[in-house]
Each structure stands twice: as C-alpha cells, then as structure tokens.
Design goal:
Layout (H helix, E strand, L loop, with lengths): L1 H13 L2 H8 L1 H19 L14 H4 L4
Amino acid sequence: MEEAVLAEFERISQRGGVLGAMETGYQRGKIQDESMLYEQRKHDGTLPVIGGQHLPQPWWLAGRGP
C-alpha cells in the first residue's frame, strides 16, 4: 500500500505538483478511471458486493393481499 501511495505522489510530482496536476485534470481523470473500473468489476462479478440491501417486494406488487 505504501508503495502505491508513493508511486501516486511521484506521478503528481511529475505533473508539476498538486497545482500542475489540477491544471491538467489529472486527479479528475484518475477518479473517473477508477470509478469506471469499479463499476465494471462490480458488474462482471469480479468484485463482490458486500452489504447490499435487499428489500422484499411489497405485497401489493407481488400480487398478494395484506
């Protein structure tokens, strides 16, 4: 984990620091890329979804009486 953080700091430094990275849209692009990867992995099943809320269907939609 520490190596990944240090590598990210290095990539930001290569873009001129935080301000340089902001000007080039680096952080925004990185967030978008990571979000897309997360959604793709969630959709294809390679990322297990833990703690998802599953609510039973209400009786009026299930065709049952109260």
